[in-house]
Design goal:
Pfam families: HI0933_like, HI0933_like_1st. It contains 13 helices and 21 strands. By secondary structure, the protein is α+β, with helices and mostly antiparallel strands. The structure holds dihydroflavine-adenine dinucleotide.
């Protein structure tokens, strides 16, 4: 594959979503482009994404769906490459798609279709791909960069770092992009897993274990953020879109507040039940709102036994407070192994928001998830990969 002393206009490190998009864009401008990845195939995270159907964009994608220490940075790229443009590309390749929740677009058949799209775009743009290739070192030289790789030395004018975040290390994630950023004097903000399920301490986990598999719509809050989405109880703890979304806002040691009856006045409902069904136990009435197993488990957990007529006003108030604001302190999160994304990363203040080039370091670019820009659940992270890849690919 590699010769010795190969020369390219642009080298992209990382054949993931952002890197392949940047490479195809630069190649289409007539630049000679090389993409290097240490994995044995490109786009491994794309393949596993969206449960195998890749939630490839979100029609609502905008800055308000991203977390960053420098929140305005993402505006320019997101505005200059919209979800509609990526959708047009998907349709141009004849890929069938479906809209699941509002704005969330998935492949109808397989995530493989998106990898094939990127491979075809790269083929058409004449880019070169070296897989199973390690980048050993990078140094700046007059007019560009020199890389030592396991396939020999490479020089280039422009170097695009698209090595992704730390999540899902089995899919090829490394800290290489962060180390490279530090080598060139950029700040790397502390990283932590996000869009990740919560774990519970042994006692609570055991108490909830019989409810594993139950999914109910809730409103969950941590810090300033709240999400109205389904929560899934698992054998390890709490997951589902509500928990994944809120994980990015949760600080270790903090409680989650879970409204199990979002949009309903819990105390009014309990009073009404006591009035209308005084001889019924609470779990039977809760089963009209929740899956039966969950109603029973919740009542057992909180000692809600006996007919409702035996409940004082204070008892009802306590039960209502639990239903409207169940407070749980997670033991932690499942960590990098199952996290979808990485919070933190390369500080964007050092980059041009239009081109993604490092200020004062001509020809060096960082794009995609390696940056301190993290999207919410629902296709925003891929839209960021496409938009940042296009921005750098148009300039590098
Ligand atoms: P990405 O991780 O895609 O690519 C980085 C590439 O760099 C990899 O190919 C890796 O092998 C390579 N690399 C790393 N270190 C290297 C080194 N030292 N040398 C050479 N190569 C190196 N998002 C979304 O919008 N919708 C969704 O449905 C999902 N679903 C989803 C499911 C799961 C299980 C996960 C883990 C993640 C998601 N995501 C998602 C998030 C999404 O996958 C992620 O944000 C993008 O893939 C990020 O794109 P990048 O190109 O930045 O990194």
């Amino acid at each position: 594959m590699a010769g010795s002393g190969a020369t390219f206009d642009v080298v992209v490190i990382g054949a993931g979503a952002a890197g392949l998009m940047a490479a195809a864009t630069a190649g289409a401008r007539g630049r000679r482009v090389l993409v290097i990845d240490h994995a044995e195939r490109p786009g491994k995270k794309i393949l596993m994404s969206g449960g195998g159907r890749c939630n490839f964009t979100n029609l609502e994608s905008g800055p308000e769906h991203f977390l960053s220490d420098n929140p305005d940075f993402c505006r320019s790229a997101l505005a200059r490459y919209t979800p509609w443009e990526f959708l047009a590309l998907v349709e141009g390749h004849g890929i069938p798609w479906v809209e699941k929740a509002a704005g969330q677009l998935f492949c109808r058949d397989s995530s493989r279709d998106i990898v094939t799209l990127l491979e075809r775009e790269n083929h058409a743009a004449g880019t070169t791909l070296w897989l199973e290739t390690r980048v050993e070192s990078v140094e700046a030289m007059e007019g560009g960069y020199r890389l030592a790789t396991s396939a020999g030395p490479v020089t280039c004018e422009s170097l695009i770092v698209a090595t992704g975040g730390r999540s899902a290390p089995k899919m090829g994630a490394t800290g290489f992009g962060y180390a490279l950023a530090e080598q060139f004097g950029l700040q790397v903000l502390p990283t932590r897993p996000a869009l990740v399920p919560f774990t519970l301490d042994e006692g609570l986990r055991r108490q909830l274990s019989e409810l594993a598999g139950v999914s109910i719509p809730v409103e969950v809050a941590a810090g300033e953020a709240a999400f109205h989405e389904p929560m899934l109880i698992t054998h390890r703890g709490l997951s589902g879109p509500a928990m994944l979304q809120v994980s990015g806002f949760w600080e270790p040691g903090e409680a989650l507040t879970i409204d199990l009856l979002p949009g309903e006045a819990a105390l009014d409902l309990l009073r009404e039940w006591r009035e209308d069904h005084p001889t019924r136990p609470l779990d039977r009435l809760l089963a009209t709102r929740f899956p039966r197993r969950f109603a029973r488990g919740l009542a057992a957990l909180h000692g809600w036994t006996g007919p409702l007529q035996g409940y004082s006003n204070a008892d009802l108030e306590r039960a209502a407070a639990t239903l409207a604001g169940w407070r749980l302190v997670p033991a932690g999160t499942e960590g990098w192994r199952t996290a979808e994304v990485t919070l933190g990363g390369v500080d964007t203040r050092a980059l041009s928001s239009r081109t993604f080039e490092v200020q004062g370091q001509p020809g060096l670019y960082f794009i995609g998830e390696v940056l301190d820009v993290t999207g919410q659940l629902g296709g925003h992270n891929f839209q960021w990969a496409w938009a940042s890849g296009i921005a750098a690919g148009r300039h590098a």
